[in-house]
TrEMBL record:
PANTHER family: AMINOTRANSFERASE, AROMATIC AMINO ACID AMINOTRANSFERASE, HYPOTHETICAL (EUROFUNG). GO terms for biological process: alpha-amino acid metabolic process. Its cofactor is pyridoxal 5'-phosphate. It comes from the Eukaryota. InterPro entries: Aminotransferase_I/II_large, Class-I_PLP-dep_aminotransf, PyrdxlP-dep_Trfase, PyrdxlP-dep_Trfase_major. Pfam families: Aminotran_1_2. The keyword Transferase applies. This is Pyridoxal phosphate-dependent transferase. One of its GO terms (molecular function) is transaminase activity. Coiled coil: none annotated. The lineage of its organism: Eukaryota, Fungi, Dikarya, Basidiomycota, Agaricomycotina.
Length: 546
């Protein structure tokens, strides 16, 4: 949408919670608007003198934007996992770096300096970071309303906590996917703000189920008003790994307009859009794109990304949460909101009396990295990260294919509806000593759909195939298998913690458990080892009582 056709956000202030409405400008923070006036002699604030900050400067060796390749580093062969196991690791690779320094005082007015970064500051962002983010958002997300603004936070968990307190009153509910990020639920439930799960399919939240839920809402039987806030992870959905299509996003946005719902778009995995998985023998080498940062390459990359809800938001009803946790470092505790100015002002009021603003050291270092790289350099960095995590996903699923027999079938119901799912059964090996009784049954032990984004494989355990299964045993058997894996040195995320409403009766879940498995962090040799241990333990588990 062209800038000329973009509209102003509409008045959505009726969504503000009673707590948010009651927030006043912090008396001391309210003085900050005067601090930068030319010639002002400020004796008002209790600001320490930068002369007494014990750091003269900060220097860092920053990786160059093109540190990671844009295509997989080796061809697909039946022995490619050996290359991963015994090839040169990232830790041993000579890193290409460039030195940057942040001085205490700026050599040129407006430069990043410790005197400014380490001082008390507003809860919006340092000026240089604000400028970078505004350019980034306008190029990548392209909001459909004109008066969007940016506000920093200490990461998406903090961002969501602030958003839900700004929008929701105790006794209200929040629309969310039936499987969702547990910390988001944990942050609101103690305030008696409860999850209202919406069914999912292979594209995430189902629009028809959302429409049915809202159109038939009965506040008396539900004992709460119709929800007016949605929490959603549309790309690399946590835990399922699904990514919502453009058509589905538009459907959900239109429903939210119809029923006056605010969308909080939590999108930490947006730049880890990995594409479809293909088995090793089916992969073909792709043409190697340019490795250097450039405006043309940036535009081509951005055009491959599924659009944000912001791109369809002509009313200003989307609060988008972004973070540097998955693209630079989680310990930086730095993220940002993109939203309409009314919501941003209320979120700022909340921030200035709590965290105030993220750590000045982290802001300074990340801002220096970004301005050193430039926009095109950061985009090049993101492109390389995508390839790295794609290789990790592919390698992990390759290991599953080595360890188990995977049978592809279309999923016709549940959270994978519309996808090709892989059912895993035992791969009979002469060395295993497996009984003929077990191998003849060839029971499906688990199934999964390769994630198209994010860091996780969401695995469904076919516990109804366990010899001792009885209705009601799901949680007991899931915990038993999870415990056995832990005792053998492998830790997965237990599925129960990702259920938005663990108390709800759902026939699709009653005969199965789940694991969320991360492929994002450990070395390739350890991924291979973990899958080998998992294979042994789950085969033993499904042989019990035979």
């Amino acid at each position: 949408m062209s800038v000329e056709k973009r509209t102003q956000s509409i008045d959505l202030s009726h969504h503000l919670s009673e707590l948010s409405k009651a927030r006043l400008t912090s008396p001391l923070k309210g003085l900050m608007k005067y601090f930068n006036q030319p010639g002002i002699l400020s004796l008002a604030g209790g600001l320490p003198s930068p002369a007494y900050f014990p750091v003269s400067d900060i220097s860092a060796n920053v990786l160059v934007p093109e540190s990671f390749a844009l295509t997989p580093t080796e061809s697909s062969t039946s022995l490619s996992w050996l290359w991963k196991l015994f090839g040169t690791s990232h830790n041993a690779t000579k890193e290409r770096t460039q030195a940057v320094t942040i001085p205490k005082y700026p050599a040129i007015k407006g430069d990043i300096s410790l005197a400014d970064s380490l001082q008390y500051g507003p809860a919006v962002a340092q000026a240089q970071l604000q400028d970078f983010l505004k350019h980034f958002i306008s190029e990548v997300y392209r909001p459909a309303f004109r008066d969007w603004t940016v506000l920093i936070d200490t990461g998406n968990t903090d961002g969501w906590s602030r958003a839900v307190m700004t929008l929701c009153n105790p006794g209200e509910g929040v629309l969310c996917e039936e499987w969702t990020y547990p910390s988001a639920m944990a942050s609101m439930i103690p305030f008696n703000i409860l999850p209202v799960p919406v069914a999912m399919d292979g594209l995430g939240m189902k629009s028809d189920d959302l429409e049915n839920l809202l159109s038939r809402w009965d506040p008396v039987s539900r004992q709460m008003p119709r929800p007016h806030v949605m929490y959603i992870v549309p790309v690399g959905q946590n835990p399922s790994g699904s990514t919502m299509s453009v058509a589905r996003k538009k459907q959900i946005y239109d429903i939210c307009v119809k029923y006056d719902v605010i969308i909080v778009e939590d999108d930490p995995y947006y730049f880890l859009q990995l594409g479809m998985y293909a088995f090793k023998d089916d992969r073909s080498p792709s043409a190697t794109p340019s490795g250097k940062p450039s405006a043309d390459e940036s535009k081509r990359y951005v055009s491959t990304l599924t659009p944000s809800f912001l791109n369809f938001d002509y009313e200003g009803r989307v609060i988008r949460l972004d973070t540097f946790s998955k693209t630079i470092a989680p310990g930086s505790r730095l993220g940002w909101f993109t939203c309409n100015p009314v919501f941003a002002e209320r979120l700022e009021r909340q921030g200035e009396t709590s965290a105030q603003s993220p750590c000045g050291f982290g802001q300074a270092v990340i801002t220096k990295i970004l301005t050193h790289w430039t926009y095109d350099g950061y985009i090049r960095w993101l492109r390389g990260l995508r390839t790295e995590y794609q290789q990790r996903r592919d390698f992990f699923i390759d290991c599953l294919a080595e360890e188990f027999h995977l049978h592809a079938v279309p999923a016709v119901a549940g959270v994978w509806e519309g996808c090709i799912m892989y059912q895993a059964s035992s791969k009979v090996k002469k060395s295993t000593g497996m009984t003929e009784k077990y191998s003849a049954q060839n029971r499906t032990m688990f199934s999964f759909v390769p994630p198209v984004a994010g860091m996780f494989v969401w695995m469904r355990l076919h516990l109804d195939q366990h010899p001792s299964f009885a209705p009601g045993d799901r949680d007991t058997l899931e915990t038993k298998l999870w415990t056995k894996l832990g005792e053998n040195g492998v830790l997965f995320g237990p599925g129960w913690m990702f259920a938005a409403n663990a108390m709800a009766e759902d026939p699709d879940h009653n005969d199965s458990g789940h694991f969320r498995i991360s492929f994002s962090n450990v070395e390739f040799a350890d991924l291979k080892k973990a899958v080998t241990i998992f294979g042994r333990v789950i085969r033993e588990f499904f042989q019990e009582d035979l």
